[in-house]
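[job 4417] fold queue: 2 targets
>>> target A
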Amino acid sequence: MDTTRIPQPRRQVRTRVALEVTVNGVLNFVDGQITDLSEGGARINGASMPARSRCEIHYGGGVTYAVVMWSEIDRMGVRFPYELTHGPLYNALKRARNAVTVDPAQIFLSNRAPVFGRRGLS
């Protein structure tokens, strides 16, 4: 029997955010910033707790429970036992996904005259 695991694509889309949060572990509160968020988990920079530990993420007056999946000295990845469907973190995720991003290069190309230089030399 083959026991190699085939990587599966993520079910949720990860979204870049910058959310200041407080992470509550068993013995301490640590301030951090969520930089990557989806309905199923998040990456938190500036905070670190042991892998497989449980924690609470405090944001916007709400609390979201999480389990630490991986941890480094200055960041960690957490999984939410229950997918985000409501609350302050979910609302922040929706706002980030609804934010319209415009590629600056496209703006300049659309307003650019078909001439050479600032003075329009040919």
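>>> target B
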Amino acid sequence: MSTADATPTVDVTEPAAEQALDLLEGEGMDTDVAGLRLFVQQGGCAGLSYGMRFDGAPEDDDDVVEAHGLRVFVDPASEQYVEGSVLTYETGLENAGFDVENPNVSRECGCGESFRT
């Protein structure tokens, strides 16, 4: 688990945290325990893709990052791929939603939905 002394696995912008917290509360989840799970899975034309979902609590071996009141859970297998990333939230008519700015990506597919490190 992350500690205050360690560099967090991921950083979260304030707008991303606010949006996720609003969604968590809208689902009736306790934001003191529940959080946003960020994970990497096989898929997409570049080989890997991001996944996000709300979880009621972290798993025992998760890295738990707390930023702007939001808890983000990252499993050990995904941690190596997302370390140093920033979770953002974009608004607008096109491409509104969460985005992961990942410094470890060496190649992305044309649509930006998958990546390779």
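[job 4417] complete. Note on B: The CA atoms of residues 89 and 98 lie 4 Å apart.
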